[in-house]
Design goal:
The protein is an alpha+beta fold. α8 runs antiparallel to α9.
């Protein structure tokens, strides 16, 4: 037993080793079902699995300098109500109010000048560029997964742990996207970047778990408890920082990034410590039993 680590080092209500490995899989499967239901509901409602932002649909970006008493959300609600525009997004950051819209740019310019005395400048977000973003974003995510799998396989030289690390990262991203649709957070270049960051965090967390389960020699459940204590400490610390960023930032881009990471990392708690840990626990338990049987036969 490693010095300073005891079986009771993890609070009992967090100790997943009290469950069988099959019972551990129930929680992530339930989460997967909820996420699939959310995406299916969004597809039935909007005709698309995801809520695409202007970056992926094309439109016009209008920039208004200066400060405003109302929040970006309040201004966006006013513009939606006045002009009945389906696709519109208002963000603040860097002393600029940015309005992304799929139509009625001239009307918005006139309204903002009359209401706030602000002169705006427009930039066309061309549909060909949006189509390129839409086509390349999945390719970037797939390339990230392939590179991740290769690196993990080279490190562990074992197929199942490598697949589990990749599967857990995918489930984290799937959950983040599903809850994004439920909360009205749109897919944009910023949120795609956040999803890539989420992959990196998930891989880091799961490599720590896999390394401890495969390389250490303590009793299996003790390895799980020790890994979980370290992993949850890392995750909760990061979540606190992200929640503070979401609550106090004045930049809507940073708010979008932080909410995606909060959603994904919350899902990672379930997917890492129930799905990945559960499958690895069943795999290693069976492996150890086979080794003991072979040793007895000798």
């Amino acid at each position: 037993m490693r010095q300073g680590t005891t079986p009771g080092s993890l609070p009992s209500f967090l100790d997943v080793t009290r469950l069988s490995w099959k019972q551990m899989l129930v929680v992530p499967l339930a989460l997967l079902l909820v996420c699939a239901t959310l995406l299916a509901w969004n597809a039935a409602k909007t005709g698309s699995l995801f809520n695409y932002g202007i970056d992926f649909t094309g439109g016009t970006l209008i920039s208004f300098p200066g400060s405003y008493d109302l929040s970006a959300q309040e201004i966006e609600a006013k513009l939606r109500e006045k002009f009945a525009i389906k696709e519109i997004s208002v963000k603040k950051g860097g002393g600029v109010l940015s309005v992304e819209t799929q139509g009625k740019a001239d009307d918005i310019l006139a309204y903002m000048k009359a209401e706030y005395g602000k002169e705006g400048t427009t930039t066309a977000l061309d549909v060909p560029l949006a189509v390129t973003f839409k086509r390349q974003a999945p390719a970037v995510l797939v390339a990230a997964y392939i590179g991740m799998f290769v690196v993990v396989y080279v490190v562990f030289r074992s197929f199942l742990p490598s697949v589990l690390v990749g599967a857990t990262a995918f489930l984290d991203m799937f959950a983040a996207v599903a809850f994004m649709t439920a909360l009205g957070v749109r897919l944009s270049l910023a949120t795609v970047a956040a999803l890539l960051m989420l992959i990196g965090y998930s891989v880091d967390d799961n490599i720590m778990l896999t390394t401890r389960l495969l390389k250490r020699r303590e009793e299996l459940n003790e390895r799980i408890r020790d890994s979980m204590k370290t992993g949850l400490t890392m995750t909760m610390t990061t979540l606190c920082a992200l929640i503070a960023l979401y609550a106090f930032t004045t930049s809507d881009v940073l708010r979008d990034i932080s909410i995606v990471l909060i959603l994904g990392m919350s899902a990672d708690i379930v997917n890492t410590w129930f799905f990945n840990t559960g499958v690895m626990r069943g795999y290693l338990s069976k492996k150890y039993r086979l080794l003991e049987e072979r040793a007895r036969r000798r």
